[in-house]
Amino acid sequence: MNFDKSFIKKLRKGDGKAQEVFYQQLAPKMYGICLRFAANRAEADDILQEGFIRVFTHLKDFRSEGSLEGWVRRTIVNTAINFYKKRKKRGPTTDLEYIKETADDKYYIIEKMAADELMELISDLPDGYRTVFNLNVVEGYTHKEIGEILDISENTSKSQLSRARTSLQKKLQAIKRKENLG
Amino acid sequence: MNHMDQLVREKFEHFTPTPPEHVWTGIQKGIAVNSTPTFFGTYKTRITFAAAILLLAAFGLWWMLPVENEFEGDYSAAEVNTTQASDDNTSENITDPEWESEVVVAETGQDIEQETKTDFTTENNAGIKTEPKSSIVVSEIDYSNNPASVSSKETISSGQISQINKLAEGPNEESVKTNTTNVSTIAAMDIALQDETNASIINQPPITPNLPDLNPVTKNNKWGHGIYFTSEIMLNDLDSVQLLPSYALNYEPSYHFNEHWFIRFGIGTSYQRERGFARLDYISNDKIGTYEEVYDVTFDSIAGEVVPTYHTKTTDVWDSVRHLQVTEVTNRYVYVQTPLLFGYYKKERKFNWFVYGGPAFNVMVSKWVEEPQENLDLIEIVDLQNNLPERSPYYMQLWLGAGIEYKIGKQLAIALEPNYRYYFNHVYKDDKYKTALSSFSLRFGVVFTVK
Q1: Could you give the dihedral angle defined by the CA atoms of residues A170, A173, A177 and A178, in that order, rounded to the nearest 10 degrees?
Q2: 3 state SS of B330
Q3: Which of B184, B241, B254, B355 has its CA at a distance of 20 to 30 angstroms from the CA of residue B379?
Q4: Partner B contacted by A45 (CB < 8 A)
Q5: How many CB atoms neighbour CB B300 within 10 A?
Q6: pLDDT one-digit tens code per residue, B231-287
Q7: Which among B11, B18, B23 is the nearest to A118, CB-wise?
Q8: Nearest to B318 among A32, A50, A91 (CB)
Q9: What are the backbone angles phi and psi of residue B86, rounded to the nearest 5°?
Q10: What is the C-alpha to C-alpha distance for residues B14 and B9, in angstroms, rounded to an integer?
Q11: Do A53 and B283 touch (CB under 8 A)?
Q12: What is the pLDDT of residues B69-99, one digit of tens each?
């Protein structure tokens, strides 16, 4: 999605109409990101809200070098990470027990699933798993970057991702079993 | 990236759920809180506005400066001064005992009460009519037969008149009329005469017009450059806000129009503080202990009695109660202030005293809103409110002050100025805090005078 310079200038000046249009254009995509990172829907709403407030108040920092959408996306992801960090401080997250990774080629379940169903599966993942999974698999961050962002070691990031995958596979297998039984 | 990752990524690529409407409402509120006021929106705008006021003040001063008299073809001033000089007998009027008349500068015949016409014809070379004891003599020189004829007015001494007489006695029988005027005309006349007469006459010393001093009256105006340090105490009846003393450092040039009246303007920064309370509503999530939770009870029969067995597990207890904490906070602000003061000044031997008054415009350029010094990283903030009211981005004051200057050098003085300030605008945005404010301040300054 591209926005021309005059539109960005209006946004920087705080033009309310431009802000609303901008929000309507990008909010659905960003809300998807929020839902993936958040522990629940209410938190996703909060992330989206805080993320966009940051976007509008810090738009002057955007240097117009890259894509504005990309910059907004990074801001939203950073906001989501901050929420995750807050949650983490609140108390220890319950990590799922380690499940041996099984070689499962039945990925067709994912293909069959709607995005929001898959998102619900991801939402059910423990905080740490979900965050690392989202950052690495969907957002494309490397383990080194994730380590720096979340203040964890690279190996922890790898291990969390591995556990997230395993957990997800387990959930997918359960769904498949249900389907077979049905 | 494994296959599953790829599938997940693809799935989410076009995942665009609709966010609930209340999110946009929340964003709008959030932007309104974070945004700066619109009129003097950005700091850049504020500084530009302050600079514009200064420029305007400087232009006003320049406009009010008296214009120095310059003798550039407009002789009206010369006329006035000449007449005065003649009346006062202060100019070096040349008096010839034979003529017993003073020849002075005049511009027009209308201003001349008496007139002497000199007809230098060969037939009437002695026909110089004189008005003895007349104070003003106008001579008209008419070189009508000369291509470089000049009709002029000039101060001419009797000796010069005799020169002209000599010319008239020469081969040319010209009617010569003299009408006194200025130096340049005399010079032109000299050139004309050169063409007509022999060199010996021309080599006479140049005619010096008997012009009075055209310099303006000695000016009493002067510039002063002052640097002032101010401590200000605000008077208010606000309950929840304690306005702490503020400090300012200003550079204020002043211009003295005359011995008594002056204007002072300038620019400075004012550092202001206020103390109040902030409310912090938070959940600490501290681990406050453990307890043994019974998750199962089994019953066994021992010696004919049923004995329950409680299966427990240790459960952590976390503090999830909302805490409310009120802490003291200090907000700090920096304003740029641009006063424009008019005053009355009185010189004494060692001290000078003065009074002044005028508006001062203050524009906020920076602010620091303090947050409670809790370990914010370890708690979940439910609500954080700095209860201090939000300041206006600008306000206007009326300064009324008096002061004394003590001369410590020829051009250097130190000044002490008690000052009262009334706030035209309220310094707070919130209506609840819109109360009339005034303050007292004491200024200490060093003033350098440029004469």
Answers
A1: 70
A2: strand
A3: B241
A4: yes
A5: 9
A6: 998 887 676 678 889 999 999 999 988 888 999 999 999 999 988 877 777 777 777
A7: B11
A8: A91
A9: -65, -45
A10: 9
A11: no
A12: 444 444 444 444 444 444 444 444 444 444 4
